[in-house]
Design a protein that fits this description.
Structural class: mainly alpha
Helix content: 55-70%
Largest sheet: 2 strands, antiparallel
Shape: globular
Strand content: under 5%
Number of helices: 47
Number of strands: 4
Strand order of the largest sheet: 1-2
Radius of gyration: 38 Å
Length: 1121
């Protein structure tokens, strides 16, 4: 046999080499693969593989042989003879011990995993020494790395096993592992302590107490850490990796001893080492007492590799030491990420935070050799990342626990966090730290709101830190202080949130400024406003440098240095204007009166700046560096308009509360604002500026609504521009739409502070009619309808009077559009615009349109959309035709939601369109967009018109109970339910989620699951489909929603569910035998509360999948007892 096995091995080696050779064709690879699969399927193939593993050096052969074993253990173990199992359990560990040093690491790891997989199946009953042998390996110094590898794999595979185990076995394994945790943690602590003690020299001076008030640090200056040799470092890395995984699943308890925590923090210190170049293999920390950092030969340790490669090794050592720090911080973060902290662990938590505080001290300490910035730059990036993660977890999860503890110096901690934040070497690091400050500011705001009595004392405790934070964040967004870093930021490429790196930087910074403003309003304002003033003075002073030569206007600043300074000042002004705009919300509401004067100063200044920009037309100047200065001047002007727009709510409050006392002041502000915007509403102005002016106009007309606005000459000019016949002067579409909206708002929206009798509706109505008539005359249908739609949309939430006038003005356009609809039915892009317009009309003005005309519109649409027309449109997914169908369905959704009887006559034809024309086309296709709208229409038909199907009156339901309900239109109801059921058999997860939500809503509002028809002929079908979906794991993201729906259906009649459905369901399950069905039935407890029921469903799904897996991998002809 030996000779034949030898021959098989050679053949296998040659096949594997051929398989991975670059010249082998795909066809030949398939042949070899089939051959190897057939070999692996043979009974007893594992014996050959054992021989191959013992006698080959070919890595491909080893990997193949281990895969055969892995397959055997995970998929066929139940059918392997017990004698063979014993032999495998005995041989593989011996093989591992014999070869672990000579085989590549990935082969060793794979072999470990196969042995752990056997333990997963057989420990402790049939493989009783599985765990003890791992512990013995760890305790034997030469074999400790192997033991740790086994321990880590055991933690990964047994603590959170995959679904190829029954729930009972999973629970048993977790319990068994938890029993071992104290022993394991004890062993790992011993290893870390031993190596730390062996390689460190402790000075005799004890460290000061963290709360003693001394400025000294817990990190002992006198400690010299000699280099760990390579093997020691690898071993300690393995220990920390094991701990990190163990901490991910074991609960916080006293098994995690202070000694273990201290040991982890010893190694976390390694990450604080700087990545400086060294000439020998040893390392003295930068704060050691050896003179000038000279190395002391006496501290050298012999390395396991011999001393021939010291120069190369030191850098490797540095990397390994940093890795120790990273792994130690990973362990710490695993512990800190747990929100559930038992009482007896809180003290340990405090110790951990104290120890990290001292690490933070070390990281942010300056000395002659290093500033904080250079120190952080020279740290390992991963370590810095892990440390930032720790700070985020500490502040977001545990600050509320620790903050009031006298043992934790919270204010000093914030001081260190400040240094850590503003010396970050990368933008990403800085963003992450700003996030931490945001979380802290939210915490503080919440705390103050809940403790109004001692608000001042809480604020005073943190005031200095907040003041520093505000000043520094403001400095960081200014080129004046931070030019080098800001110029590195990309302001062109958009990220997933559609913002550039510069915009993200500014936005996150301004969020922090706004949060400080909420806590310290007056201080924040007095810090920000003078800085804004300085930059405004530069901008307002530019007028003196404008030189006019005929029609040519030039900015007479050309020296390179002056241009650069102007560029920086304009960029800063732009940022500060955004900051001022961001703070607008802190001047309105309850604090309006208290902060009125500050806000008035800001608004007056913003009005002055916008007027100045428009009068001097700075955007139109020739400059020495047009590619830089011109965009800067445009941006400042645009941001000033946007900042002023942000104060429109303040202006509205001013108008309603103090306008009567300061009438002229208010009128001047509004008039100047309009004077600043109106000259920009022309095609000659850059679009960025034009749009800012239009948005400001819209806000003034919709939010402030001054009564005198329509009389201003500037406004009359805009009316004339928009209604003029001249097409060449037409604004770009977006700007045109915004201006039309502003003009329409002016005429339609009620004026504040005035009674109905003084609203001048008559005049305004005729003006509005002539405005819309002029707009409708002007352009082709695709340009006009979006503008009219926008006008309607903007008043949809307004008073009845506004909507009435709007509809009167639109009436003719609506009639014309409807008569043109049949003409354009074959042009989907035009039909798309038309239906978008009609959809907005239905949503906003259906009451004003009246029943008769609405009916006429619906009738026109229903007759135009034939089955062929719909099918052709739907089949072109993503096309204009498809969008037309979507909008049509949306219009019908609005119609069926209308209360009262007016539109009820359309229900049969709408249902018929839905079920007989749209549904057959989309049923077997993905068509996600049309399908989503169609199911929403079906839901709305059922929900809003329930009595169309169930005639039960309140009286009969009280007298006879719901069982006697009268059912009408049963066929259509059944068809709708079948459509819902069918959607659960398809892969589209969004439709699935939407429809399960609709069914649940119908149940909560109309008791759908309790209705006789549903209960008797549909309920079990739905439960069956949903359980099958869970079994197939096709919609795993919706597990909770599916389980909840199953529960709500089952609880209609729990007795029937347990006595009729469950036996029927289990009998119909393929791939399990009678005894397994009995176990599944027995384990599904007859519980009626949701948590227990959910657990039973999860157990059923897991165990059923497990049994199927086991049974499918049994050798044919296996007899099970």
């Amino acid at each position: 046999m030996c000779a034949s096995e030898e021959g098989s091995l050679r053949a296998l080696e040659s096949l594997m080499t051929e398989f991975f050779h670059s010249c082998t064709t795909n066809e030949r690879k398939r042949e070899i693969e089939e051959l190897l699969n057939n070999f692996a399927q043979q009974t007893g193939a594992w014996r050959h593989c054992l021989f191959f593993l013992s006698n080959t050096r070919n890595e491909y052969v080893m990997m193949y042989s281990l895969t055969v074993f892995e397959n055997l253990v995970n998929k066929m173990w139940i059918g392997v003879a017990s004698q063979d199992k014993m032999e495998i359990r005995s041989c593989l560990p011996k093989l591992l011990l014999a070869q672990h040093k000579s085989v590549p690491y990935f082969i060793r790891n794979k072999l470990c995993k196969v042995i752990v997989d056997i333990g997963r199946q057989d420990w402790p009953m049939f493989y009783h020494d599985f765990f003890t042998s791992t512990l013995q390996l760890i305790q034997s110094p030469p074999l400790a790395p192997l033991g740790l590898m086994m321990l880590k794999t055991t933690s990964e595979e047994l603590a959170c096993p995959r679904e190829d185990l029954s729930v009972a076995r999973k629970d048993e394994l977790r319990k068994l592992l938890l029993e071992q945790v104290p022993t394991v943690l004890g062993l790992l602590t011993d290893i870390l302590e031993t190596y730390w003690d062996k390689h460190s020299v402790i000075a005799s001076t004890p460290p000061p107490s963290p709360t003693s008030g001394e400025s000294g640090e817990w990190i002992n200056h006198g400690m010299v850490v000699a280099s760990l040799d390579n093997e020691s470092q690898q071993l300690c890395c393995l220990v920390l990796e094991c701990l990190a995984h163990l901490f991910s699943w074991i609960p916080l308890s006293t098994s995690i001893t202070p000694t273990l925590l201290a040991s982890i923090f010893h190694f976390a210190r390694f990450g604080c080492d700087l990545r400086t170049k060294a000439k020998t293999g040893c390392f003295i920390s930068s704060n050691s007492s050896s003179s000038n950092g000279q190395l002391n030969p006496g501290t050298m340790l012999p390395t396991s590799n011999g001393g021939g490669r010291n120069g190369q090794q030191s850098e490797g050592n540095k990397v390994d030491r940093a890795r120790l720090g990273v792994l130690a911080m990973t362990c710490v973060n695993e512990l800190v990420s747990k929100n559930c902290v038992p009482m007896d662990f809180e003290e340990y938590l405090l110790r951990m935070f104290q120890q990290t505080f001292f690490l933070l001290q070390k990281l942010t300490r300056e000395n002659n050799a290093h500033t904080v910035k250079t120190r952080l730059q020279e740290l390992d990036e991963s370590y810095l990342e892990k440390f930032t993660d720790f700070l985020r977890l500490f502040v977001s999860v545990h600050l509320r626990r620790i903050e009031s503890s006298p043992q934790f110096p919270i204010v000093e901690f914030l001081g260190l966090l400040f240094k850590f934040t503003f010396n970050q070497p990368t933008h990403e690091g800085y963003f992450a730290c700003l996030d931490i400050w945001s979380v802290f500011l939210d915490f503080l705001t919440t705390k103050i709101k809940s403790r109004l009595a001692d608000r001042e004392s809480v604020l005073n405790r943190y005031k200095d830190a907040l003041v520093l934070l505000l000043r520094e964040v403001l400095n960081r967004i200014q080129f004046r202080y931070n030019q080098a870093q800001l110029e590195e930021l990309d302001d062109e490429t958009l990220d997933d949130d559609q913002q550039t790196e510069w915009q993200r930087y500014l936005r996150q910074s301004l969020e922090v400024v706004a949060k400080v403003m909420e806590l310290l309003p007056s201080h924040a304002f007095s810090t920000l406003f003078p800085v804004l003033q300085d930059n405004l003075d530069v901008y307002l002073g530019l007028q003196q440098f404008i030189v006019t030569n005929g029609t040519n206007r030039r900015l007479n600043i050309s020296a390179e240095n002056d241009c650069r300074r102007l560029h920086c000042s304009l960029r800063d002004l732009s940022s500060l204007l955004q900051a001022v705009g961001r703070l607008a919300e802190h001047f309105i509401g309850e604090v309006f009166a208290a902060r009125f004067n500050d806000a008035l100063v800001v608004v007056e200044r913003l009005v002055e700046v916008t007027c100045y920009g428009s009068q001097t037309s700075l955007y139109d100047l020739e400059t020495a560096v047009p590619s830089v200065l011109k965009p800067d001047l445009i941006d400042v002007h645009a941001q000033a308009l946007a900042a002023l727009q942000a104060y429109s709510h303040w202006l509205a409050q001013f108008y309603s509360e103090v306008h009567s006392q300061n009438q002229s002041q208010f009128m001047n502000l509004i008039t100047s604002t309009i004077d600043a915007s109106s000259p920009l509403i022309t095609t000659k102005v850059p679009e960025k500026l034009l749009l800012s002016a239009c948005h400001l106009m819209v806000s003034i007309t919709s939010t402030v609504r001054p009564v005198f606005l329509v009389t201003l000459p500037a406004v009359r000019n805009i009316f004339n521009l928009i209604t003029a016949e001249n097409q060449t002067r037409r604004l770009p579409q977006e700007a045109h739409m915004l201006v039309c909206r502003a003009l329409s708002n002016m005429l339609l929206l009620p004026w504040p502070n005035l009674p109905e009798s003084e609203q001048q509706w008559q005049t305004r109505s005729s003006n509005h009619a002539s405005l819309l008539a002029a707009l409708a005359l002007k352009a082709v249908i695709q340009q006009t309808l979006p503008v009219l739609r926008d006008v309607v949309d903007s008043i949809s939430g307004e008073s009845t009077k506004s909507r009435q006038i709007c509809y009167q003005s639109l009436q003719e356009s609506v009639q014309v559009s409807l008569s043109l609809f049949p003409v354009f039915i074959q042009q989907p892009d035009v039909t798309d615009e038309m239906l978008a317009f009609f959809l907005t009309l239905f949503q906003a003005l259906r009451v004003q349109m009246g029943v008769a005309f609405t009916g006429q519109i619906i009738h026109t649409f229903l007759s135009m959309f034939t089955r062929e027309q719909l099918a052709a449109s739907i089949l072109q997914e993503g096309s204009a035709g498809c969008r037309v169908v979507q909008k049509f369905l949306k219009i019908l959704q609005v119609v069926v939601q209308e209360p009262g009887q007016a539109f009820k006559p359309f229900l049969p034809s709408i249902l018929s369109l839905c079920m007989e024309q749209v549904y057959p086309v989309v049923a077997e296709r993905s068509s996600p967009d049309v399908k989503a709208e169609m199911f929403e229409l079906l839901y709305q038909i059922l929900h809003q018109n329930w009595r169309y199907f169930f005639k039960t009156s309140v009286l009969t339901s009280v007298q006879r109970g719901a069982a006697e309900e009268t059912m009408e239109n049963e066929a259509q109801f059944t068809a709708a339910m079948q459509a819902f059921g069918q959607s659960f058999l398809q892969p589209d997860i969004h439709i699935f989620k939407q429809n399960i939500f609709y069914l649940e809503l119908l149940n909560s509002k109309h008791k759908l699951y309790h209705r006789k028809l549903f209960r008797t002929s549909m309920l079990f079908h739905f439960i069956n489909v949903l359980l099958q979906v869970l079994l197939h794991k096709s919609h795993d993201l919706l597990q909770e929603e599916i389980t909840l729906a199953i529960y709500n259906m089952a609880c209609v009649d729990f007795d029937a569910f347990y006595s009729a459905f469950m036996p029927e369901f289990l009998n119909g399950c393929q791939g399990v035998d009678t005894s397994q069905r009995a176990v599944l039935a027995r384990n599904f407890k007859l519980e009626r509360d949701l948590p227990s029921f959910t657990q039973s469903v999860q157990r059923l799904v897991n165990d059923l999948r497990y049994y199927r897996l086991c049974n499918s991998s049994l050798p044919t002809g296996t007899i099970k007892l």
